[in-house]
Design a protein that fits this description.
This protein has 254 residues and is an all-alpha fold. It has two domains: 153 residues, Lysozyme (Orthogonal Bundle); 78 residues. Helices cover 67% and strands 0% of the residues. It has nine helices and no strands. It is elongated and about 90 Å long.
């Protein structure tokens, strides 16, 4: 297995689970097929095109013929390179939601039989000249293992995640605290001004302490709100451990 596969397999699976709302076994079946087509995401261009003299397949799914032209046009229209992660993932989702909807319906309604899902995705989506189902299933099993080791994702689109809710709550709290501190400051200064003839020196001290407390309170609330936001997004993304290294994600045998 390759470092490229170790890095991309969990990443792509999380994206598929999030964007298509499919089971992790379905996502692993897709990644297993893509990995087989690209030798673990190391070969974007088909090495020996089946059709002599043709450009052959390109990209994660080795899109060929009209599908390759559509892939390249889709990327060009969005300013993406056909070799990029964004281009490949974007077009994969585009096909599954459109012209290859039959494959997505299968993924949505099938069970947790990884072997059956992998074979079905090859037949419905890849339609390969050489099926090589056993190899595809091995890649799928490895993808699933890496995914589970790196954090079984329950990731959600940003708009549906608790990140936005946490940010909103933190922002409202900060505004409320800021308003309260501001009013307290005004009240304190007004009171001090009223008695400035007898406690002139105290007025200055009271004003300083009021605004100092307001500043500290607002700062602490802002930090707390940011902590809520960061935790919420991390939790929504499946609590990935960013400090894992390549040794932690060593090759996983089927």
């Amino acid at each position: 297995m390759t470092k490229q596969f170790n890095r991309l397999a969990p990443l792509i699976m999380r994206a598929l689970v999030r964007e298509l709302a499919v089971h992790k076994y379905a996502a692993a079946a897709v990644v297993g097929n893509l990995a087989h087509e690209t030798a673990g995401f190391t070969l974007m261009q088909e090495v020996k095109p089946v059709v002599a003299g043709s450009r052959g397949g390109y990209g994660w799914a080795q899109w060929t013929g009209p599908r390759r032209k559509q892939f390249e046009a889709w990327c060009a229209a969005r300013g993406l390179k056909p070799s990029s992660y964004e281009g490949n993932l974007g077009f994969l989702l585009h096909e599954l939601r459109g012209s290859e909807r039959a494959a997505l319906r299968m993924l949505e309604h099938s069970g947790a039989d990884l072997h059956a899902l992998t074979v079905a995705f090859e037949k419905l989506f890849e339609r390969a000249g050489v099926p090589a189902h056993a190899a595809r299933v091995r890649w799928a099993k490895r993808a699933l293992a890496l995914y589970e080791r790196s954090g079984d994702a329950n990731s959600k689109p940003l708009a549906d995640s608790r990140t936005v809710k946490g940010a909103g709550a933190g922002g409202i709290g900060a505004i409320a605290m800021g308003g309260a501190a501001y009013q307290a400051g005004k009240d304190g200064i007004a009171l001090a001004t009223d008695v400035k003839d007898t406690v002139g020196e105290a007025a200055g001290l009271l004003s300083w302490l009021t605004w100092e407390a307001a500043a500290i309170g607002a700062g602490l609330l802002t930090i707390g709100g940011l902590a809520v936001v960061l935790y919420a997004r991390w939790d929504d993304a499946g609590r990935p451990l960013f400090w894992r290294n390549e040794k932690d994600l060593a090759d996983v045998e089927a």
